[in-house]
Structures are given as C-alpha cells and as structure tokens.
C-alpha cells in the first residue's frame, strides 16, 4: 500500500518512523517541483501523518511551521462556537421593529443579505475545520485519511477563493460607508434593538478572523484562474438573487440602493465594480500574501512554483 504526498525542493530526506518499519523518502530537485513521497504502510490501520509530513517539509525548506493539530482544534472550535452563538442571538432579535428610511423589513430580507451569507460561510468553514482537526488527533485508517484530505482540500479552496475576499469586502465596505454616511447606513438608534456584539461580529471580526486564519494555518493557494472563476460564480449568483428580489418585491434588499442606484442597469454597473473588481483584487492580493507567508524561500525569495503545490493531499 503506497501513499503519495508532497515534495521538498533541493534536498533528499530520509525519516525513520519510531516503532514502525516505515521509511519516508522525500526527494526533489529545483527543476522537478512535483516530486513524490512513498510510504510503505506496515499496519492495516495507521495514524494519519499528513500534517506531520507537511510540517517536516516546511521545516526543512526553511518555511514557517504550521501549529499543532490541538492548537488548530481549539482555535477553530472557539470560532465555530462564536459564530453559532451569534446566529443564536440573532434569532431573538425583533428585526421587524427596525423601521428607518434606509433600513426596514430586515426580517423579511435577512437571509438574502451578504452579511448573513458571510456569517454562514464562517460558521460552516470553522465547523468543518474543527472536525478535520479533531480527526488528526486520533488514529484513522488510510481510506478515512484520504477522504479527510479531500474534504480539507475543498474547505481550503472555499476559504481562499470565496470566504476570504467576500469577508474583506463586507467589512471594508460596511465601515467605509459608515464613515461617509453614518446616519444613513447604520443609525445609532439601531443599537437599541440590535446588540452591539452582533454588529461587530457581523461587520468587524470577519476581516480579522480570516487574516488570523491565513497566517495561523496553511491553506494551499489555488491557481489564479480557478480561484477567480469560483469567486465570480458566487458573486454572479448573488447578483441574480438581488435582481430577482427587486423584480418580485419592487425594492432592493438594501434600501440605500433605491436612493442612490434606483435602476437595474445602474445597479449592475455599481455591483460589477464593488462585487467583481474589488473582490478579485482582494483575492489576488491574498493569494500572493499566502504564498509569501507559507512559500518555500530560496535565497530570500519565495519559490512561486512551490507555493501552489506545497500541501498536496495524500493519494
């Protein structure tokens, strides 16, 4: 039974696992970035060592070392609880009592607001990450390990391509608009109905949380074209959702749009800039930042080829 995972640049590494006659070989050259690692499994059930092998590869390549699984389990579990608690608190708020010139019928359109979509993204991502971290702490079969690697790969792809740029757009967009139009965007009287804690978890913490996650845990950077395609797909779905609601109910989800952008063509133009161009800029910037933080460094420079494939799954 053979398992294949990632590579190390410019070196060969032999590791003898204690009490298990398994030998791990990591070899590659500067010109051959996609080298293979073969592991001979001596027992029918072995503990998944994907994280250990990736950690050894990062250490020997001079890159940063990811934290232990128990640390990630605690951090991800805490964040999952935080967003679950906020969603539970939001259920007790009387949203229909919020009636302002630019904010009304919040309960009716709550599920279509981008802020709510962002909270659901964070809750789902951190719940899945917590489960994956837990399974790294216990013994597991090779088949289960391969399945978990697939799930982690999809969760990481979602984080890098959708959750990260949209969270940045929601937080930066809300507070930028609040600075310019304080009483219009979020009147102070709203704090009497919506707890300040919910407001800050919804509009402030996401941008800090995704940056902490980006720096704390390694997420394989996808290639730029698939990443942009994934982000544009989600944004297009949201665009059509907004237009459909406008046609069905005769108003936009955000009444502020009715004041300043009162036609569908104008909305599409403004939305294209705020929800396509700006998020793509955030996306590309974060991919470069992720490669800089976790990329293998050679002579003080980040290896661009390695940054995309540094944390391949076990196959």
Automatic annotation (TrEMBL):
One cellular component term from this protein's GO annotations in UniProt: membrane
One Pfam family linked to the record: Far-17a_AIG1
Keyword 4Fe-4S among record annotations: no
Topology of this chain in the membrane: Multi-pass membrane protein
Subcellular location: Endomembrane system
Main location: membrane
Bilayer-spanning residue ranges: 69-90, 110-135, 156-181, 193-216, 228-247, 267-287
Alphabetical UniProt keywords: Membrane, Transmembrane, Transmembrane helix
Chemical reaction(s) catalysed: 13-octadecanoyloxy-octadecanoate + H2O = 13-hydroxy-octadecanoate + octadecanoate + H(+); 9-(9Z-octadecenoyloxy)-octadecanoate + H2O = 9-hydroxy-octadecanoate + (9Z)-octadecenoate + H(+); 9-(9Z-hexadecenoyloxy)-octadecanoate + H2O = (9Z)-hexadecenoate + 9-hydroxy-octadecanoate + H(+); 13-(9Z-octadecenoyloxy)-octadecanoate + H2O = 13-hydroxy-octadecanoate + (9Z)-octadecenoate + H(+)
Protein family per UniProt: Belongs to the AIG1 family.
Record-given protein name: Androgen-dependent TFPI-regulating protein
Organism: Aphis glycines
